[in-house]
Design brief:
The complex is a heterodimer of chains A (313) and B (232). With 313 residues, chain A is α+β, with helices and mostly antiparallel strands. Chain A has 9 helices and 4 strands, in the order αβαβαβαβααααα. A 4-stranded antiparallel β-sheet of chain A has the order 2-3-1-4. In chain A, α1 crosses α7, α5 packs across α9 and α7 packs antiparallel against α9. Chain B has 2 domains: 156 residues, Rossmann fold (3-Layer(aba) Sandwich); 67 residues, no CATH class. Chain B is built from 8 helices and 10 strands. In chain B, α3 crosses α4 and α3 packs parallel to α5. The longest helix of chain B has 16 residues. Chain B is globular, with a radius of gyration of 18 Å. Classes of the chains: A alpha+beta (313), B alpha/beta (232).
């Protein structure tokens, strides 16, 4: 067919690389959303890591104290006077003999003054004058059966030696501690959910804003016969790349923060806090966070675009 | 091809801009749509390219009642229609090549097929040297040709053009009209909205005249004369 037009002179070239059908990568606000996703991922990583660490701590405490009890031979008599230290040591030795011969007892260990001092040091400080403070006798015992019945039988036998002798199964303080760590874990989970909702809301808002800015182009694609899936893929791809960039930044910063916290908790050593360590599975889950964030952002973009497109004829 | 029966259109709660419209376009026909400014030409075109739903009446396109189709079912119908918008609606961040390739990409054609077809068509409309030029650096006439190339690249069965010569000088305008006639001879049904009476008289095709919201069909005497002479 004859060419109906003359050729025109060259006026300047665009890049020959194929562009997005919609210029979403050039929209203002992209940087802000990437930063927001970065911060959200960082916070989610900290919350999840805290939840994992609390779970590990609880597990360690529970398993460490399973079937273990502490026998206390009080220094105080029923009338309120104090036993002489020699009497306490004598009663403790007798109690040890009773325990050692009982079939329910796997092992027993009389705690030395130094061990008792270590136990109370975090509360009373370094300069504890052992000679002036009446210390009870303590025996750490491992049972093969720590049911209430066994504990009662043992306690009755021990009260023949010292009327106020008692067996501490750690249940009371452990249940308080577990309740407290459970509350912290719930707070961490709630925080993660809030972070997720914030991310979804921000991405949805960003997509809506971009659809408004590029309304003419979206309508043009629609009129050319582009399916809803075709149009939504444009936004999905953009959201996926944006979320991945932000999430990788967030996880990078989060990783540094967690390593710093781990190092600090390691430096604190013996004190009240156990080591802040995570298992390989938990680290892998944290590392998968960018994939999850990108997936959430992509699905959010898709749902938002399809909802807006449904209003078109 | 297209049949409008008692079609009406109103925006919101305003008066009807189109009222009781009845007409039919046969396959392979060429029509002008004319009328004074504000008569509703663009609104009528938007109904024809499925850009909006009528307030009342029945529109049949390619043998299907559009009112009974889902959004998904409208997609293949839209792909059979090429539209040249009055304001071109080229995508500013894309080269001429990518603008023209867009409808083919939407239809999922291979990049090889796209490359061959787009190169050939851009050469044909005289923009072979402007393949990778952005629309913002093109003249009005060049942009118009890109818009036309984009509208015809998929070989649509129906081509709708809204004031395609409105901003062009006479010479370019007549060239474009010749291009439309060539496409029409290749089997494309064409409807051109214009208020350029000289153009309508020169090419002498059937006129759809919109006025006061109503539409009348008028066969051109020029067209009748040509028919009598056995040109068609």
């Amino acid at each position: 067919m004859r060419n109906p037009f003359k050729k025109d002179r060259m006026i300047g070239k665009a890049r020959q690389k194929r562009q997005y059908d919609l210029p979403l990568n050039k929209s203002s606000g992209t940087g802000f959303l990437i930063l927001l996703i970065c911060l959200m991922t960082f916070l989610a990583m900290l919350a999840l890591a805290a939840s994992f660490a609390l779970s590990a701590m609880t597990e360690r405490w529970s398993s460490g104290l399973e079937n273990k009890v502490t026998v206390e031979i009080p220094a105080e008599k029923p009338d309120g006077t104090i036993y002489a230290p020699e009497n306490i040591k004598s009663q403790t030795a007798r109690a040890y003999e009773v325990l050692s011969t009982h079939p329910s007892v796997v092992s027993a260990h009389v705690m030395t003054d130094e061990e008792i001092r270590d136990l109370v040091r975090p509360w009373l400080g370094e300069d504890l004058p052992l000679g002036k403070v009446p210390l009870p006798g303590l025996i750490s015992v491992e049972l093969n059966d720590s049911t209430l019945k066994t504990v009662k039988i043992l306690e009755t036998k021990l009260q023949d030696i010292n009327e106020k002798a008692r067996i501490d199964t750690h249940e009371e303080w452990l249940s308080h501690l577990l309740r407290f760590t459970g509350a912290l874990q719930f707070a961490a989970a709630l925080l993660t959910v809030i972070i997720g909702i914030t991310t979804v809301t921000a991405v949805a808002g960003g997509v809506r804003s971009r659809m408004a800015v590029h309304n003419a182009e979206v309508e043009l694609l629609h009129l050319m016969g582009a399916s809803d899936n075709y149009i939504s893929r444009q936004f999905q791809r953009h959201s996926l790349i944006m979320a991945f960039q932000g999430a990788l930044g967030g996880i990078g910063i989060g990783g540094i923060a967690l390593m710093t916290i781990g190092w600090i908790s390691g430096e604190m050593g013996v004190s009240l806090l156990p080591d802040f360590t995570l298992g390989a599975v938990q680290i892998a889950m944290l590392a998968a966070l960018p994939v999850l964030v990108a997936l959430i952002a992509t699905l959010t973009a898709r749902q938002t675009v399809l909802k807006v497109l449904a209003q078109m004829p | 091809m297209i049949r409008f029966e008692h079609v009406g259109l109103r925006y919101g709660i305003g008066p009807e801009v189109l009222s009781d419209i009845n007409f039919a376009l046969e396959p392979g026909s060429f029509h002008f749509l004319t009328g004074p400014s504000g008569a509703g030409k663009t609104s009528l075109l938007s109904l024809m390219y499925l850009g909006r739903h009528p307030t009342r009446g029945l529109i049949t396109m390619f043998g299907q009642n559009t009112g009974g189709l889902t959004r998904k079912q409208l997609v293949p119908l839209r792909q059979r229609i090429g539209v040249v918008f009055q304001d071109f609606r080229l995508l500013g961040h894309m080269s001429a090549f990518d603008n023209v390739a867009l409808p083919l990409r939407i239809q999922g054609k291979s990049e090889k097929e796209i490359g061959n077809n787009v190169h050939e068509l851009l050469e044909w409309v005289g923009l072979g040297d402007h393949m990778h030029v952005l629309p913002s650096t093109m003249s009005g006439g060049q942009q118009q040709r890109v818009a036309i190339a984009r509208a015809v690249i998929t070989r649509p069965r129906l081509l709708l053009a809204d004031e395609p010569t409105g901003n062009l000088d006479d010479e370019i305008g007549y060239r474009l009209m010749n291009l439309f006639e060539q496409l029409n001879r290749m089997g494309t049904t064409i409807l051109i909205a214009t208020h350029d009476h000289a153009l309508i008289e020169k090419f002498g095709h059937t006129k759809l005249i919109l006025d006061g919201g109503g539409l009348t069909v008028e066969q051109s005497t020029h067209w009748l004369a040509k028919k009598i002479e056995g040109v068609f």
